[in-house]
Write a structure and sequence with these properties.
With about 550 residues, this protein is of the alpha+beta class. The protein is built from twelve helices and 18 strands.
């Protein structure tokens, strides 16, 4: 009896795991069953030390910027998902190598049963992992866990069958292995033929599952905004302002499809609107559960908001502006029936993210809201459906999405990212960006009287922008014109018409917040308090 070793086991493990990924993907898209590769990756990310996780985030953002990919959040999420699939595939290969090694050492003649046992062990591990993540799902736990276990048992069975198929028994007259050179050549060809057929079958199943799953992707609820958008029927409140953006400046109002998304899960949790309740407990007179209908019954608060991720580098794309609609937390507080001893609210999400907000912050700012609409339509799944909080002047890391519960407490505690080494306050830093030096076709007839529009955005959280200045090369700072912002919590579009001079030039921008405080000049990375430094753009004109 000659059994295949670890190398063949690793190859077979990878070949059998690839279609398993496709099957998991198809079931996830069609029936919202667990996508185990993502669960495994989320679990690994959750147990990693904060420094390691931060290093990974920073490295990913730097790599995306080096590749000059415009949409950082989409690229980061795609990279994250690709890594999740790669990790799962490698895990399958390693388990295949381990199984084949043990079967060879122990000279097991019936490898299917050990394969099934490995599948059961992997299935139970996946179930335990999913339970630890407390994944939100509309499918019953029995069905989710039964499906996961069955799929991995089938995977383990396939490994065992492959091992049996690749094992050859050739017994001579004395009961010993009788092998001729011809036999060995035939065996090698037979094994090679089997592996080729296995690979072809794997490729067919994997491609078919991926294609069907992608075509069925729209069936996952809430992935696309539905309803008539506010921006489709209204003009912006500053539409009559006489400072037009320079050609090439980013849209002042970010389309929902382009708004950045950063979160702690490989795939966003899908919350069932029909059964969702906002649960309020802790230091309260009695626990309360609020439905979405009850929350929407309060007078709505509409606010144009620019939100940025604390991981956003200077001039990065992890920032966007849209119109938020929700209920002011000040209006909602009486319904929460808080105890007089309560000082903070701990908000927890469907992805196990959490943050703590001081009641003093809520009582001091009516703009703190629980938001349910963006641009006049319900939040999409990836942007936090059904409910998320907005806290002016703070980075997105302090603002949970997919809210499930509020716990009233008598103390502050570090939130999810604060525990992992990020800034306790996470106050937005003043920043300014050059989006464009709008030369277009102007250079052909350019002379000393030509004015080249230079433009971009400046932002300082809820503190506003009082001034933007542009410097060309080592010249003096020149004040730019400011377009009136959409609100006191949005970025400001600025424009500077530069007197043309031919040559190689470097344009630099800086801003001052509403209190006249200049943005920080020192170059700092995003971790732990947000990036700082001046943005420049060099061009040959």
């Amino acid at each position: 009896m000659r059994k295949p070793g670890a190398a063949v086991g690793g190859l077979v493990g990878a070949l059998v795991t690839a279609p398993l990924i496709a099957v998991f993907y198809l079931a996830w898209k069609l029936a919202e069953l667990p996508f185990v590769p993502f669960n495994l990756f989320d679990w690994i990310a959750r147990i990693l030390p904060g420094r390691v996780l931060t290093f990974g985030i920073d490295s990913m953002v730097k790599a995306i910027r080096m590749l000059r990919i415009a949409d950082t959040s989409a690229a980061a999420k795609a990279a994250e998902q690709s890594m999740a699939l790669a990790v799962f595939l490698v895990a399958g290969a390693l388990l295949g190598a381990l199984l084949f090694t043990l079967l060879r050492i122990l000279r097991v003649r019936r490898p299917v049963l050990p394969g099934i046992a490995l599948g059961i062990a992997a299935g139970l591990g996946a179930v335990a992992l999913a339970r630890s993540l407390e994944t939100v799902s509309n499918v019953s736990p029995a069905i989710r866990e039964g499906w996961t276990l069955a799929a991995l048992v089938a995977w383990g069975t396939a490994l065992g069958v492959a091992n049996r198929r690749l094992t050859r028994y050739r017994i001579g007259l004395r009961g010993e292995l009788d092998r001729s050179a011809a036999d060995e050549r035939i065996e090698r060809l037979d094994r090679r033929s089997f592996l080729v057929r296995l690979g072809a079958t794997t490729a067919t199943i994997t491609v078919a599952g991926a294609v069907v799953g992608s075509l069925a992707g729209g069936r996952r609820r809430g992935e696309v905004a539905t309803g008539k958008r506010w921006s489709a029927e209204h003009t912006l409140p500053n539409s009559g302002i006489d400072v037009p953006p320079a050609a090439g400046t980013r849209p002042e109002y970010t389309p929902l499809e382009d708004h950045y998304r950063i979160d702690i899960t490989t795939s966003p949790p899908v919350v069932d609107a029909a059964t969702w309740r906002l649960k309020v407990g802790g230091l309260v007179e009695r626990p309360v559960e609020l439905t979405m209908e009850q929350i929407r019954a309060y007078e709505p608060l509409h606010q144009f908001v620019t939100l940025a991720c604390i991981s956003n580098p200077v001039a990065g794309s992890l920032i966007g502006t849209t119109r938020w609609t929700g209920v002011s937390m000040q209006r909602l507080l009486p319904a929460l029936r808080l105890s007089p001893t309560a000082t903070h609210l701990k908000l927890s999400s469907a992805d196990r993210f959490y943050e703590v907000v001081a009641l003093d912050t809520i009582r001091g700012d009516p703009r703190v809201m629980l938001a349910y609409d963006w641009d006049g339509v319900p939040l999409t799944t990836k942007h936090g459906f059904p409910l998320r909080i907005y806290i002016p002047d703070l980075y997105g890391m302090k603002q949970p999405k997919w809210l499930l519960s509020i716990e009233a407490t008598d103390r502050w505690e570090p939130g999810y990212w604060v525990k992992r080494g990020w800034d306790r306050t996470a106050r937005m830093k003043a920043t300014s960006v050059i989006d464009t030096v709008s030369v277009d076709m102007m250079l052909a007839q350019a002379d000393s009287s030509t004015r080249i529009p230079v433009g971009g955005i400046a932002h300082a959280g809820a503190r506003g922008i009082s001034k933007v200045e542009v410097r060309v090369d080592d010249g003096p700072w020149q004040e730019a014109r400011l377009r009136a912002p959409l609100s006191d919590t949005t970025w400001v579009v600025w424009r500077y018409d530069w007197p043309f001079r031919p040559g190689n030039h470097t344009f630099t921008v800086r801003c001052f917040d509403g209190g006249g405080v200049a943005q920080i000049v020192d170059v700092k990375p995003p971790h732990p308090s947000g990036a700082s430094g001046l943005h420049s753009k060099s061009m040959m004109l």
